[in-house]
Amino acid sequence: MHRAFGWALVVCVGCASTSPAAPPDGASFDAGDHDGGVLADTAPDLGTLLGAAGLDVAPGSLESLDLTGCCDPGRSCAGNNPSSPYLTVFVPRGPGQTEPSTGERADGRAAQFRLRADEAIVIVGTTPPPAAYFGLTPYLMSRQDPGATRRREPFASLGETLNDEVIEVNGASAFGVPFAAIATGDATTDRTIRGVLETLGLRANTVTFDPSVVRFGLEDGADEVGLLFRYALPDDAAAGAAWVESPGATVLRVTPRTSHADALPAPSARAKGTTVEEASLTAALDRLEAAVRAAHSSRTIRDLTVTDEPPDPTACIAGTAVCAGDNRDTVYPRTPPFVLGRTDDVYVLGVDHTVTHHATYANASVYSVEHLAGLVSVTSRTWSGSASEWLPGDPDASSLFVWRISRDCGTDAHCLAVPTTECPTGASYATLLDIAFRAYLEPGTGTGPSPSTLILERALLVQGP
Asked: What average pLDDT score do residues 396-411 get?
C-alpha cells in the first residue's frame, strides 16, 4: 500500500544460513496437507511440539484483505496497489488481555494486535505460485500517545520485507514451496520456535517487530502491530487467485509460559543499489515525450509533474508524517490531482525499470483521491515494447514505455480505461484522480531501488477533442 499527496498511505530477516535439522523418524512436513492449519498426518503436531518446548499457542489465520468497504464515508483504501492483492494475519487476543484489539471481529481475531514482549506469531505454509513478487512486511499499526483521546495509526513499516528474493526455503525457487516465518521481538522465543520448526525440516525466517520501536504489552495503552502479505502478477492468474483466496497457512500466536526479556537487535536496512544505468536514457525520453506532444499538437496539453517523496517510517512513528502501509521494496512517485473528463487522455511515459534491472516489476496506478482507492493499473509486463510505435527504429525505444489512460479506450490496445463505476472500481467524471508509479524489488539487493538511480516518470494530461 502507500500513497502520498500531502498525506500518505494498510523486515529485516534473520534467515537461517545452514540446512535445517533432519525431521525426527517418521516425521515430515507435507506442503499439500495444511489446509485450515493442519500439518501432515505423519508429522508431529506443531502446537504439541511448541507446547513441549514451554510455549502456549492460539490459532490465527492468513486471509485475503477485504477492501469492499474502504470507500464508505470516512474510510480509506490506503492507496492499495491494484496490481497486487493483499493478505493479512488475524490473531486472537493475548492471554490476560481484557480490552479488544482495534477492529476485532466476532471470532475474537484482529489484524492489528498487541503482543507481550516475548510473544511471537508463527506462519507455516506454502509460498504462492510463481509470480513477479511476494513479500511479508511487519508494521506498527496503532499507538496510544500519553494524554491523547484516541489511538493514532502510523501504519509504518518496522523494517525490510521478507520477500521472494531473501526468504529461506528448501528449494531452488521461492515459489510454491513450504516456508516458515517467525514474527517476534524476542531472541529466546525466536530461537526456541526455530528449533521446533527445524525438527520438521523447515527453514525458519525471522521477521522482527523492532523492540527499539514497539511498545510491547497487552494493556490498553500498548502498541498494536500487524503483518501484511503482498503478491503481484502471478504467472498463472487462476492459480494465483486460488492461492490468495485460500493460502492454507497455519498461523499461531505463541506465548512462553514463563515470561522473560531477551530483545532481538533492531533490524538493519538492506543496502540499496548505487548503479545508475538510466541517466543515458534522458534524451530518449525527451524524444518520446516530443512524439506524444506532436501527435496531439491541436489539443491542450498540461504537464502533470511527477514528484517522489519517499515515506519516512521513523517520522510516521513519531507522528510527524503518515506512512499508510509503506513498503521498502518499492518507490512511490506520483502526479498531482487532476480530473479526467469524457474526452481527456493522460499519457504516462518513462524508463522501463525492469529493462534497466532496477525493478522486478513496475506499474502505473490510477487513484481516486478522496478514498485513496487504487482503481486500475498497467504493469511492466503489459507496457513492454510500447514505446517502439512512437519511436520507430530508435535504439533506446525498448528501454522506455508509454501508455494512454482514458475514459474510453476504443480499440487502442495500449490504453488503460478508467471506469465511471463507483469507488473502488471506478470514479465519476468530476472525481479528483492521481497516478502513482511503483518499481518493485531491485534484483540482487533484496530491497527496492534507490530513487537516486531512477529517472522519474512523466505524465501529460491531454484535453479537448
From this structure: 97
CA proximity to 78, closest of 152, 155, 10 = 10
Number of domains present in the structure of the chain: 2
Cis before 424? omega within 30: yes
pTM: 0.90
Distances (CA, A) of 13 to 265, 343, 355, 359: 11, 49, 28, 21
Length of the chain counted residue by residue:
465
What is the percentage of the chain residues whose pLDDT exceeds 90? Answer: 85
Q: What is the CATH number of the domain that holds 430?
A: 2.60.120
Give the residue carrying C-alpha cell 473528463.
Answer: 341
Among 65-79, 246-260, 337-351, the least confident range: 65-79
* SS3 call for 81: coil
Which domain range does residue 403 map to? 279-463
Q: Which residues contact 167 (CB under 8 A, 6 or more apart)?
A: 13, 15, 127, 174, 179, 205
Is residue 222 predicted with pLDDT exceeding 80? yes
Going by C-alpha positions, the residue among 65, 84, 26 that lies closest to residue 438 is: 84
Residues 303 and 367 placed together within one structural domain of the fold: yes
Q: Which residues contact 161 (CB under 8 A, 6 or more apart)?
A: 11, 135, 136, 137, 230, 327, 328, 329, 447
Same domain for 330 and 241, yes or no, is no
Residue 297 and residue 216 share a domain: no
With H, G, I as helix, E, B as strand and everything else as coil, classify residue 384. coil
Structural contact between residues 399 and 292, judged by C-beta atoms closer than 8 angstroms:
no
Residues 41 and 99 in one domain: yes
Q: For the chain, what is the total number of helices (H) and then of strands (E)?
A: 6, 22
Position 129 in a domain: yes
